[in-house]
Amino acid sequence: MSSLRRKAWENLMVAGVNALVEQRAITLEDPEHNSHEVPDALARFTYQDGTPCIAIARDIDWGELEIVVAYDPTQDVRSGLGGVYKEFGRASAFGWLERRTSQHLQKMGRISSRFFYCERPALQALAAAAVEPQGFARTGKFFL
User: The whole model's pTM is what?
Assistant: First the structure.
């Protein structure tokens, strides 16, 4: 995966997690100490370029959340849990947020089309944004 695609995937994932946390749909705390989380939490937000987005999170145990984020969504992203498919919007990102050992997006060696779909015109806008994680690391160890 090119560095431009990786940056776009990271930015979209970070923006989605930030929105989920800001809207109190999820917390970054270890789930053993947090019993207030809603299954399949959803957050609607606007990307830095003004494009509407949707992020959804599902608890998959062991302190991890499965995250799907759609940029300019065309349909409900709930069916995307478990992988990304292009019909969710102009771009879609899929990944995992670790919360038990530390708070970070799990880094994968290669981000295939299962984890990131992006129409060419949207790629530059996603990669060029300055999106900073709020309370978690952009990437960290991947757990099986």
Answer: 0.85
Domain count, the chain: 1
Rounded CA separation 77/54 (Å): 7
State pLDDT tens for residues 60-99.
877 788 898 999 998 666 555 555 555 678 999 989 899 8
Domain containing 78: what range?
3-140
Cβ atoms of 116 and 8 within 8 Å: the answer is yes
**Which parts of the chain are beta strand (E)?**
41-46, 52-59, 64-73, 89-98, 104-106, 116-118, 137-140
Type of residue found at 128 = A
In the block, which residue shows the tokens 């145990």?
A: 61
Identify the DSSP state of 107.
P
Distance CA 16, CA 13 (A): 5
C-alpha 122/C-alpha 101 separation (Å) is: 34
